[in-house]
Write a structure and sequence with these properties.
6-stranded parallel beta sheet, 8-stranded mixed beta sheet, alpha/beta, Rossmann fold, 2 domains
């Protein structure tokens, strides 16, 4: 699209507002999608404006900045260490103020929101269409078996939190002009939150950065990378990526490694409240030397590049961005099948390209991992070509444009 007026003077680029609760340097599927969508909008001639929070771990970030052509505004999530109960109220006041300011100063074409809380406020306060790209739903995502809780008080607080998040899930679905989900199981979950969403719920797919997530250039390069990362050079290396909570199934993956030959090792990338318990489980299972905890890293692509097999062990995963990162890195994928006790989209994404466990157990997972044979480079490149052909951020941007600004959907 042209960005020059008839008179020859620079023409203001149309603004697309992207809102959420967290953003970089936090790393996850939501933050990843916002970053890549924003860059796609820059390339397409738009001015993306991000409105995101600054959770406690990142509360030293500037309130306003421009990075790579993307304008970023941050509402304050934490102000007082003593009067903590007042922080949510202060956050809402700040969010409301910034939404009003951006509505007045930026006049966005439409808004794309990736958080139910922020989407609700965006839909109420903005005069443009709001598209809610749902990351998940609390009724499923925050089930007791998918979270961490010790003691009656913590369990009670988690139930209260789940109910509050469910209320905002419902509000976001009701108030947004359009809703986008990334998998069929998310469509079903959205309908369970509010049946009326079926009339405005669109199924799309996220993208994956195939430049960032790519296989090692050679076997020698992979071995050298393992040395740099402190990983065993000669092992058959299994990779798991995600937050250390019950829903990720990393306990089953560690138990699976315990029943595999000693030539197999596991690296877990991520962190979370279950880390101590997972490390203790590795000791108890006698595989602590074969299980490597990398922690939260800024360059997860290096671990994909160093690995031989990726395992999606999650019991609840609305989509599984890590699956797309794995196939972009040419890795074979092992997963559970979706069923009564498992919610995921691996079959929807990969069909028979993945290897599936025969049942939801450590033994089933181990058997599936063992079934993955050493393969030619061509097999890995076939998986990578699937990522390149089907999962692009530009395609998602075009879907959002068609919903929010139909006259600009071809850009």
């Amino acid at each position: 699209m042209s960005v020059v007026s008839v008179a020859g003077a620079p023409k203001a680029r149309p603004v697309v507002l992207l809102t959420s609760y967290t953003y970089l340097p936090a790393y996850g599927g939501v933050e990843n999608s916002l970053r890549h969508l924003a860059l796609e909008y820059v390339r397409a001639g738009y001015q993306p404006v991000l409105l995101v929070g600054d959770p406690p771990a990142f509360d030293t970030l500037p309130r306003h900045e421009v990075v790579d052509g993307v304008e970023i505004w941050r509402f304050r999530c934490r102000r007082w260490a003593v009067l903590k109960l007042l922080n949510p109220l202060a956050m809402m006041v700040d969010l409301v103020g910034l939404l009003r300011r951006l509505r007045r100063e930026k006049s966005p074409l439409f808004c794309v929101s990736r958080n139910q809380f922020v989407a609700t406020f965006s839909a109420v306060l903005l005069s443009c269409p709001v598209i809610y790209v749902a990351p998940g739903f609390a009724l499923e995502q925050q089930r007791p078996q998918n979270t961490v809780g010790h003691g009656c008080l913590r369990a009670l607080l988690q139930r209260v939190k789940r109910r509050i998040h469910h209320c905002f899930d419902y509000a976001a679905l009701r108030l947004a002009q359009q809703v986008v989900v990334f998998s069929k199981n998310m469509q079903a979950q959205a309908r369970r939150v509010w049946a009326g969403v079926a009339d405005k719920c669109v199924l799309s797919k996220p993208g994956v950065d195939t430049d960032r997530f790519a296989p090692a250039a050679s076997a020698a390069a992979k071995l050298a990378l393992r040395g740099e990362l402190g990983l065993p050079k000669q092992a058959r290396l299994i990779l798991g990526v995600g937050r250390f909570v019950g829903a990720k199934g990393f306990d089953l993956l560690i138990d699976a490694v315990a029943s595999l030959p000693e030539g197999y090792s596991l690296v877990l990338v991520g962190d979370g409240p279950n880390r101590d318990a997972l490390e203790a489980l590795a000791v108890q299972a006698g595989v602590r030397e074969r299980v490597h905890f990398a922690g939260k890293v800024a360059t997860p692509e290096l671990y994909y590049r160093a690995a031989d097999i990726f395992v999606m062990s999650s019991l609840y995963e609305p989509l599984g961005q890590t699956v797309l990162e794995a196939i972009a890195s040419a890795l074979p994928v092992v997963s559970f099948r979706a069923g009564l006790t498992v919610t995921n989209a691996t079959e929807e994404l990969l069909a028979d390209v993945a290897v599936y466990a025969r049942d939801v157990s450590a033994a089933g997972l181990a058997a599936a991992i063992a079934a993955v044979q050493l393969e030619s480079d061509e097999a890995g490149l076939t998986r990578r070509s699937l990522a390149e052909a089907r999962y692009t951020w530009r395609a998602l941007m075009q879907t959002l444009n068609a919903l929010g600004a139909p006259d600009k959907a071809d850009t």
